């Protein structure tokens, strides 16, 4: 039996709700253990994601709901120094901004809301 990625049950699915700048929403199903960038790509969410998840740009910048942001912070998954440096140049930066490529989904994130900046 393969070990789960990051000690997480990978076969579990969670719901991720994307909120667009016009306040419309798209509900997506995502696999625990994948990163948010993959969810964005797999569901045709209109974010360019230029570097493909290499932590070399800020085009996958998203704004997390407060609960999800705090969950990451409380579990030692806060933004790295490299991520923070890239976020500094992101348009529409908020207190709960993160790069989608750096967010690994966990079961506790079920129902998370992710806002797309203008």
UniProtKB/TrEMBL annotation:
InterPro entries: 2Fe-2S_ferredoxin-like_sf, 2Fe-2S_ferredoxin-type, Adrenodoxin-like, Adrenodoxin_Fe-S_BS, Beta-grasp_dom_sf. One of its GO terms (biological process) is P450-containing electron transport chain. Keywords: 2Fe-2S, Iron, Iron-sulfur, Metal-binding. PROSITE patterns: 2FE2S_FER_2, ADX. SUPFAM superfamilies: 2Fe-2S ferredoxin-like (SSF54292). The keyword ATP-binding does not apply. Residues 14-118 form the 2Fe-2S ferredoxin-type domain. Transmembrane segments: none annotated. One of its GO terms (molecular function) is 2 iron, 2 sulfur cluster binding. It comes from the Bacteria. Its cofactor is [2Fe-2S] cluster. Belongs to the adrenodoxin/putidaredoxin family. This is 2Fe-2S iron-sulfur cluster binding domain-containing protein. It comes from Candidatus Cytomitobacter primus.
């Amino acid at each position: 039996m393969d070990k789960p990625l990051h000690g997480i049950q990978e076969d579990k699915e969670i719901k991720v709700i994307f909120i667009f700048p016009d306040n419309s929403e798209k509900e997506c199903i995502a696999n625990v253990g994948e990163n948010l960038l993959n969810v964005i790509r797999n569901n045709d969410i209109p974010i360019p994601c230029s570097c493909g998840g290499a932590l070399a740009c800020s085009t996958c910048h998203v704004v997390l709901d407060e609960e999800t942001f705090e969950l990451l912070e409380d579990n030692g998954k806060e933004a790295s120094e490299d991520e923070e440096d890239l976020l500094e140049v992101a348009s529409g930066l908020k207190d709960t901004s993160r790069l989608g490529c750096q967010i690994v989904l966990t079961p506790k994130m079920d129902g998370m809301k992710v806002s797309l900046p203008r």
